[in-house]
Design a protein that fits this description.
alpha+beta, 2 domains, five-stranded mixed sheet, four-stranded antiparallel sheet, disordered C terminus
């Protein structure tokens, strides 16, 4: 299951105002998951995805509504960091490498959470706090994974987890851990609740909207 990238009229306006990307270029980059997950607002169901625009030579953050897949706005990085929360240099490096992989030997302190190999198809099981088990289907990683960081570095995987969480009626906050198994039922990785919490953000930090006033409904786009 994969959500194709669709932009609201507001997002199209912001994309045109703030970037040199066409809607088609933007959609292709997002459909190819050349992005980095930098937060998920549980209350709103909004996924924040960092990306690097080659025409602009700048970073931006797009906000995607995971309830229907619509991209609702595109924010300049500095705007997002001022009004929402800061984004790590590690995430920025990962976003840049998604579109310019040739820099992997040049960038300092490059992240290496994934061991390159032939790839891994993993079965996903969610374990709720009450012990209930829910099948979240499977996901094929492009490389062998051996840590939760490696799994969470794959935006396609995160997208699947967020969609399955919604469709199966298992809120992210109710999950104690995710278990990943290979086709031989061998355990690969456990993603603990505190690792999953990193996907979510503190709603209390979202206190300023685009006009500079305190938002009344948590909207700052």
């Amino acid at each position: 299951m994969k959500l194709l990238t669709l932009l609201t009229n507001h997002a199209k306006e912001r994309l045109a105002e703030r970037t040199k990307l066409s809607v088609e270029m933007f959609a292709q980059q997002f459909d190819n998951f050349e992005t980095v997950s930098v937060g998920y607002r549980r209350a709103a169901g909004h996924w924040h995805r960092l990306f690097y625009s080659l025409p602009d030579e700048k970073y931006f953050v797009a906000i995607q509504d995971m309830r229907n897949g619509d991209v609702i706005t595109v924010l300049p990085l500095e705007y997002h960091e001022t009004l929402a929360w800061p984004i790590s240099d590690k995430s920025k490096r990962r976003a840049l490498l998604k579109v310019k992989p040739e820099l992997i030997e040049v960038l300092p302190d490059r992240p290496s959470p994934i061991v390159r190999s032939v790839g891994t198809k993993a079965e996903i099981t969610a374990i709720s706090i009450d012990g209930a088990r829910t099948n979240f289907g499977s996901h094929r990683f492009a490389a062998t994974i051996n840590t939760s960081e490696a799994a969470l570095a794959d935006d396609t995987f995160i997208s699947k987890v967020l969609m399955k969480s919604a469709s199966r009626g298992v809120p992210l906050a109710s999950i104690d851990k995710l278990l990943l198994y290979d086709r031989h039922d061998s355990h690969l990785v456990t993603i603990s609740w505190n690792d999953l919490e990193a996907l979510a953000v503190d709603e209390a930090r979202l206190v300023i909207e685009e006009s500079g006033r305190t938002p009344s409904h948590g909207n700052f786009y």
